[in-house]
Amino acid sequence: MQHGPAVRRRKLGAELRSLRTSAGFTSGEAARLVGWHQSKVSRIETGTSGVKPADVRLLLDAYGLTDVQLRELLLVLAGSDDNGGRHHWWHAYRGVLPPTYRDFISLESQASAMRTLETTVVPGLLQTPEYARAVTEAALEDASEERLDTLVEVRLARQDVLRADPPMELSAVLDEAVLRRQVGGPGVMARQLERLVEAARLPQVRLQVLPFTAGAHIGVTGPFVIFSFSRTSDLDVVVLDHLTSSLYLEWKEDLRAYSEAFNALSIHALSPEDSLDFIAGTAAGV
């Protein structure tokens, strides 16, 4: 398990190596094209050293990569807060958001699909403003009103990925506890459950409820997120959230294990149609 920046460096390096090979260059030839020493290209490709977004642009130009979306994704992996001089929206919150959260948002903003198991709270992409504030207040008891407002604003801005063109595809398995936990009180919870019903009807959203009657399951070890990228599956990553940091799993064995776990959870959960009825019924009883 590695923290975000290390994972991103290795994934970026592997993709740059693949692009160089596809362009028909050796590492030495690539280095000469951009005026570097061959060892610098090697360090970048193995992920042993960081790389500036400007250097990534040089390499991508040298390799003739014109795919705009893939270029932007690789620049995000390089830690770029801008795209051709245009700042990403979260750049305005750099002074408030910790680096691990910015890493998460940057990956989320470029992912084509997200699979998530949630065992305690509603996924951030589906939270109402009132629910998001209640969750944030509980997590940061000493936070000022101003900071709470800003963090809720960020949470809501993240939801734009579901309205993008094309939108991110979100598949979420929710433990029944997510629906039963009274976050923010009955009124806030009622509106949040109504929001889930609305979201479940969106074509890009697949919601399933894992009822208590399912008993013990593979997800009891905790929530997780799997990000997938349409341009290259080699950039897929699993994210595990902890109280003070996030851990990223990148190896194919980890991705396979978590993908199989998510598939198993989907099988044991209620169908999307039955889940919609379950959520609606829970909302009616709040």
TrEMBL record:
Residues 16-70 form the HTH cro/C1-type domain. It comes from the Bacteria. This is Helix-turn-helix domain-containing protein. It comes from Streptomyces incanus.
